[in-house]
Amino acid sequence: MSIEIRPLKPGLAQTFIDYMSGDMFAHSPNWSGCFCRFYHTDFDMDTWIARAPEMNKTDSLTAIQAGDMKGYLAFDGDKCVGWCNANTLSTYKRMKSLWPENEDPDQLGATLCFVIHPDYRGKGLARKMLNAAVEGFKSAGMKGVLAFPVKSETEPMKNYRGTLNMYLELGYKDLSLVDGTRVFRLDF
């Protein structure tokens, strides 16, 4: 398996849409219409639930083409096999209650969603994408990067934010538990 990690660029917008439209969410169909927009929004849950998947798809395409939605895609040859949502913390409006006080959220990166093709799960792909994201944030001059992993033994699909170990292995510090969400940080 020869995996290549590529940053999401406007030229890969349709690849992203095609990947997120595939069978990645057979285990959790209610996520299939998200197109990784949930954390970029701040409207109430009723509005989110009522939102048509086509709106999320259109918003993703528009944001990618404008350079506002960022992350990393994993490829095995020409086949897209993974996605990591990685951007400045300020773009994740829904996570605002977890932003560090007295710090510029434009100077911190964050990783949120890892969507791995079922045939590639458990093979270290999320770790490779996380490494690429960390290096990307360093290169961009960020002060550090945050992560918000959820550990679930009984419902592995809830581990979509990455596993605790993959962050700890890179040197992230477990800062706190805020409103039931674990906050990890890696400073540069």
Distinctive features:
single chain; Aminopeptidase; 188 residues
Description of the structure:
The protein is an alpha+beta fold. 26% of the residues lie in helices and 25% in strands. A hairpin with a 2-residue loop joins strand 2 (71-76) and strand 3 (79-88). It is globular and about 40 Å long.
What's the CATH topology name?
Answer: Aminopeptidase
CATH architecture annotation name:
3-Layer(aba) Sandwich
The largest sheet, given as strand count, sense and whether it forms a barrel, is: 7 strands, mixed
In CATH, what is the class? Answer: Alpha Beta
Number of helices: 5
What is this structure's SSE topology?
Blueprint: E1 3-7, H1 13-20, H2 45-50, H3 53-65, E2 71-76, E3 79-88, E4 108-116, H4 125-139, E5 144-147, H5 164-169, E6 173-178, E7 181-187
Provide a concise account of the structure shown:
Helices cover 26% and strands 25% of the residues. The chain is of the alpha+beta class and 188 residues long. It has one domain (3-187): Gcn5-related N-acetyltransferase (GNAT) (Aminopeptidase), CATH 3.40.630.30.
